[in-house]
TrEMBL record:
This is GDP-mannose pyrophosphatase. GO terms for molecular function: hydrolase activity. Gene3D superfamilies: Nucleoside Triphosphate Pyrophosphohydrolase. Keywords: Hydrolase. GO terms for biological process: nucleoside phosphate metabolic process; ribose phosphate metabolic process. Residues 39-170 form the Nudix hydrolase domain. Belongs to the Nudix hydrolase family. NudK subfamily. One of its GO terms (cellular component) is cytosol. It catalyses: GDP-alpha-D-mannose + H2O = alpha-D-mannose 1-phosphate + GMP + 2 H(+). The keyword Hydrolase applies. The lineage of its organism: Bacteria, Pseudomonadati, Pseudomonadota, Betaproteobacteria, Burkholderiales. Its cofactor is Mg(2+).
Amino acid sequence: MDKHLKETRIDGELVYNGHFLKVQRDTIALPDGKHTAREYVLHPGAVVILPLLDDGTVLMERQYRYPLHQVFIEFPAGKIDQGEDPLACAKRELEEETGYSATDWQFVSTIHNAIAYSDEHLELYLARGLSAGKARLDEGEFLETFTATIDELLQWVREGKITDVKTVIGIFWLDKLRSGAWKLE
């Protein structure tokens, strides 16, 4: 159906093999038959948790992100380990980063946050029935947690205080779910 848009891989090579990321360079055939190169980041995927407390507030994180040299407000999230089930990863990441566990988990959506240069996908989950516990941060991981209302989060998106794409999308999902405009299956 989209044959007139499809690019076809001819060959390729892994040009960078890092601890966390890998960079692939492929030679491809364009729909008109011409050849060109595509470079992209290979990423194992990640989960994003939308932790909704019983009082309607949302559990959030503040974390310094080195590439942009600033602290960002984000949802708890983390990389899916090879062979790991995404829901199991979400449960693990929520506990490790925040100390919280949840009794009610619902899949929300899959998003692709960098389609021009990465194969990364993010699996969003709504977590409810939260219970506090002790965080177990990874070595070299530093963050703090806090709670906010959905309305505060929406205002922070509007003001540019929240710019992380996974968090912006998650906030919009929470707002649509709260209003009843969108339902989860």
